[in-house]
Design a protein that fits this description.
Elements (H helix, E strand, L loop, with lengths): L7 E10 L2 E11 L4 E5 L6 H8 L7 E6 L2 E2 L5 H7 L1 E3 L12 H7 L4 H9 L3 H19 L15 H13 L5 E5 L7 H16 L3 E5 L3 H7 L2 E6 L2 E6 L8 H9 L5
Parallel strand pairs: 3-8, 3-9, 6-7, 7-8
Antiparallel strand pairs: 1-2, 1-4, 4-5, 9-10
Helix pairs in contact: 4-5
The structure holds adenosine-5'-diphosphate and magnesium ion.
């Protein structure tokens, strides 16, 4: 144990769906400023782990502490307010909202909205702030030219970028990204890599579910590998290929259990 409090500590987390034990005794720490790759075959429990940490699922057992405070019973909106945001593996976008409207809607967490409303400026100031922030983020994530299109008309890759914009609207300290480059055109993929590195340089801690080993070597300082609900490795990306348990996890192909 280090004597500094980790940004996030997950201890003895367990989750089953019926008889399917999806997470078993999962424990790990994330330190501030890390970019951690979360790897594992399909069905190994990666998205479920993200869903539990971000309040979209409840754990059967275990503790999740953010900056030393237990958060495992908080609802999703409280976890966002605490400073943890996420993106989704398959972002669904509303039919009738533009890209800009979706980005702005993501800023109206209850806390931020009411705090600004009760300040001097009122609703207009809150809207102006959200608009300015959405404009900057859409520019940063290469969506400025499509800001007035319906969000549902974006390509799969652009929807992933918009998911990242939405996650960043609340100025999180920590972001979980679920397969940000899966199905994304190689040009956009490089832009996502650059954007994530920039965010990390600005102090953001990132946990990224990813299959692409090039991406992981390029971006991540550490990897956590899940196999059938167990953590089987926590190591540098360079150590992955020499780690037999990791190779077994991949070659074994994530058998059902
Ligand atoms: P990964 O993201 O690593 O591919 P998931 O966390 O999505 O894996 O899924 C892990 C296992 O949990 C799979 O067997 C999946 O079918 C099951 N699972 C996930 N969510 C649910 C749910 N809401 N209800 C029942 N089973 C689920
Ligand atoms: Mg998944």
């Amino acid at each position: 144990m280090t004597n500094t409090t980790p940004l996030l500590r997950v201890q003895s987390l367990a989750k089953a769906f019926g008889g399917n034990k999806v997470l078993q005794n999962v424990s790990f720490d994330i330190q501030p400023g890390e970019i951690v790759g979360l790897l594992g075959p399909n069905g190994s429990g990666k998205s479920t782990l993200l869903n539990i940490i971000t309040g979209f699922e409840s754990a059967d057992r275990g503790v999740i502490a953010y900056r030393g405070n237990a958060i495992q019973t908080l609802p999703a909106h409280r976890i966002v307010e605490a400073g943890i945001a996420r993106t989704f593996q398959l972002p669904a976008m509303p039919e009738k909202m533009s890209v800009m409207e979706v980005a702005m809607a993501a800023s109206t967490t209850h806390h931020g909205f009411w705090e600004t409303l009760l300040g001097t400026g009122g609703v207009r100031a809150a809207e102006r702030q959200a608009h300015a922030k959405a404009t900057a983020l859409l520019h940063e994530l290469l969506l400025a030219h499509v800001r007035d299109l319906p969000a549902s008309a974006l390509s799969g890759g652009q929807k992933k970028l918009l998911g990242i914009v939405c996650a960043l609207m609340g100025a999180p300290k920590m972001v979980f990204l679920d397969e940000p480059t899966a199905g994304v055109h190689p040009n956009l993929r490089n832009d996502i890599v650059s954007a994530l590195k920039r965010l990390n340089q600005q102090g953001m801690t990132l946990v990224i579910v990813e299959h692409d080993m090039h991406f992981i070597r390029e971006v991540c300082s550490r990897c956590i590998v899940l196999d059938r609900g167990h953590i089987v490795a926590s190591c540098c990306p360079d150590e992955l290929s020499s780690n037999e348990r990791v190779l077994q996890a991949y070659l074994g192909g994530g058998a059902e259990n």
